[in-house]
């Protein structure tokens, strides 16, 4: 306020200034034409300096004297004579005269700091005390400053100084002096000494600034990128390996395993799944090895359970067969059993032909074996018969018994495999089918599992194609285009060199194996009838079947139920691995000792980011942990630093809980390796013994699994992709994610074990939060000894309203005392208790919302907390409960504002202004400080505080009653509709004038606001726009806003146009081989009677339909991927055109298509064509269609480019200055 007043005086807006003697020196004021001094100057210097302010020509300097006071008149004359004498002596001094006199040097009153050499004299101590007071917390009603009381002791003076109630101490009495001026200086000097000794002044004798302690300082190397704990900074980190999965049994002849049984139960009764067992060396924690989870398949759900079943010993032969089974089946289903060397003409190789030791890693050693489907009383029975069948199949492929080496190469033609002699008698029977290694009854073929010997792929038999044979026309099963093969027999002969022995046998229809899917997420409840999800859009896809001669198949003695279960294993194992990692972290945190148990599921939630696309994430726990951390640190600081004022405590807390500090603590304990920051990609998941088909070689420049904390592994480059792992587990991660994880873990421990558990993990992290019970008793004792003027009725009345009687009344008296009471001699105020109470209410309300709304979106939970935990809400609580009348203060301005606010609150809601009167901050502060006082009085019983405050705070906002701030609400509405807002703010005097303009399709709306603050002015303008939009029938529900936020990862509405150049619009799939048409441009003419604008001359009631800003200019169109869309987006934002809508169509061909030109040329079987609809206010709509492209984003760029050039042709934009 003082700075604004001085600025107004300097600029000429104010021409009369009332000030204390502080303007004599140190504060710049312009030359004045008239200076009137009301108080008599005490020194010649004071007289000269105040008169010096009247520097204009013909200015006046007036000193006011008490009428008839001869003493004052004589004193003023003495000062004037002294000033003239000093002036004459200076003017008439002989510069050549040197008079040497003996003199004695009197020790000057001063205080020195040996460490720095800093000093303060009696003369400079007064200004230093004022400077110290200026740094103390204050508000618009209270400016901290010292007061002085003089005592006349028969010819000498004694001065008593009283400092503000939030100073390090309140009163001090100086030594007796010969005059009052010296007495004031000496008491200030004594105060400076004491303040330095207490740490309130630093060694440079300046007011101490709260800086982080050495352990809190973020040490950075010269190469280190700034911004630790921020969203912009990205860091390369490794992934912690799971110790529970490591094993050395691969080197042993026999081993003992822990057995964990997998059971699967589908919600469709006739869909059966085989059980499996997981064999590992390490016993898992109970909450990891005994779990249930739901797996979401297309149009069905499978409940899976994991249970511990004791131990099992495997003999050497069993271990060999189990490993071979795992290698065979996982590679046959999800990988390849045959590989062709990269060198030209080299034969293809069988993966398991040679030593397979390279497929196994001691850090990831476990077995997954199928179980027999029996009703045996045994808890499990491994299906060794099926395993042996797979071993036999491997041996057959190894020996090449059925197909020779030349046959695998496809070079020479050999006859089909021979059947052993004892089967010859059945060869001519129509009831049997010849397989490659056996004869099978035709009635037993359905649903059996088979292996194609020429490809190594695993299938299940769907049915016998009775009207077909190998002589039937070859259709490729998926291709309707003319084929180069006339029959299946010719196809296998020419492509694989196989001459079929039984070409007359009917073909078998086989169900192809497919990639595993992420079954942990229910991507769409609406998915039925074979629907699947591609790019976030549910699309119906046909089942993929192939036709094959039976004699090329080996029967695997496993049921189709086993095959079904194999597709569930990647998702089950991924969840188990994640829980193992969470349990591993829990073991590190609780390694010392703990009397609580936090579930691994809860810790896993704290380690999982939104990017994982799970149905849980760290966001809710992060919000809770933030409040818990704030509360714990606040209690620690309040009790451990009783001499610190609120500003110092707040600064220390800010350093302790800031993201940079949390990031440092998190990385120091290697939390980054535990964080799950990307969605589960089952195609890259590999079991032990499986060879990855999608390797991502490490190019990170790090040879170790762990990445050093070095600046060269930090960047702010927006092109860096976050979350994608290389084969060594290195991945880029947002720096803030680590800080968020620290808060989420604190929240998880608080949720699972209360405040004791939360303090335990804070101690492990290195956060000072552990409290000494004696400090609480000390705080209570200090409050009970504090001197105050008891107001019995005041305290008793307030206690009745609170429904709580204080044991120490001094705590409540302090909680309701404003700092302005200093003028009445009160030496305390509520600021420290407000600091504590703020964190108490933050935690209590957050915990209440967390428990009351377990299913709402984390963003909405944050909004609920923001609406409940704020000064305005607490001020309303004070007025609703009539607490404002108990606030002890000495400020007329505060009293008038409270009166005005109480009147505003009592008005009917409908008659209130758009923005309304803001509550005095002192009222909200009092509500917080009373909460802090109750917490101390109850010996930190936070539950008791909630018992008292829950009825006071009621009704607490709920999601259906949540009202967002006007500007936020307007922004969300415009984002959903694709409109842009332009804002303009101008400061005129003390007021800010804001103007928000919103271009609709048929009108330009303008809202205006005028308030003291920029935010409030924009809020008032937003209120006007929202009201106008509502009158036009345009509004946005809160639920719709939340739905858009939840769906943003996978879906978006048709107007989506993301700045990260990733537009996920609905894709309609058409299986067509028709060539795509070139782009077309259609202009839609709007009818005159339509509500849409058809002419730039149509006006709405607010403004012309489109602002006349001239033709916009685009310097150049970015040619890289996403560039045309970015240019179009920036254009629309600049001229406030509504966002264009996109529609993309995918066409599939059964023959390869060449798309694109030059470096963009690509060949594929799908083409994407995008269409755009852009509405230009006052002109109409433009529709454009782009060229066909091989991927969706390129097709969007194509149509954006076409649209930009069409806009240039129509004179709506200038590109490149042309």
TrEMBL record:
It is found in: Nucleus. Residues 1044-1053 have a biased composition (Basic and acidic residues). Its main location: nucleus. It comes from the Eukaryota. InterPro entries: Dicer_dimerisation, Helicase_C-like, PAZ_dom, RNase_III_dom. One of its GO terms (biological process) is ta-siRNA processing. Residues 125-215 form the Dicer dsRNA-binding fold domain. Residues 1040-1060 are annotated as: Disordered. Its cofactor is Mg(2+); Mn(2+). Belongs to the helicase family. Dicer subfamily. PANTHER family: DICER-RELATED, ENDORIBONUCLEASE DICER HOMOLOG 3. This is Dicer-like 3. The lineage of its organism: Eukaryota, Viridiplantae, Streptophyta, Embryophyta, Tracheophyta.
